[in-house]
Amino acid sequence: xxxxxxxxxxxxxxxxxxxxxxxxxxxxxxxxxxxxxxxxxxxxxxxxxxxxxxxxxxxxxxxxxxxxxxxxxxxxxxxxxxxxxxxxx
Length: 89
Hints:
The chain is mainly beta. Helices cover 7% and strands 44% of the residues. It contains one helix and eight strands.
């Protein structure tokens, strides 16, 4: 499958639940936890530092679907966790 890059963002140390800034036309994203673990939810509910799916530092996941991207939220588990997101169509 050929993917077309649509954009990139880095969410720096999200101390509060943070939504993605999804570029128009994006249908999937590669999301990476940098330096420390993060928690995420894709149902529109805010994760907390102890509740939500855990993404370990230096790991990544693919998220597919415009609705899922729109509902996706992240939060750090400890200070110093950045989130890198590459968007594709």
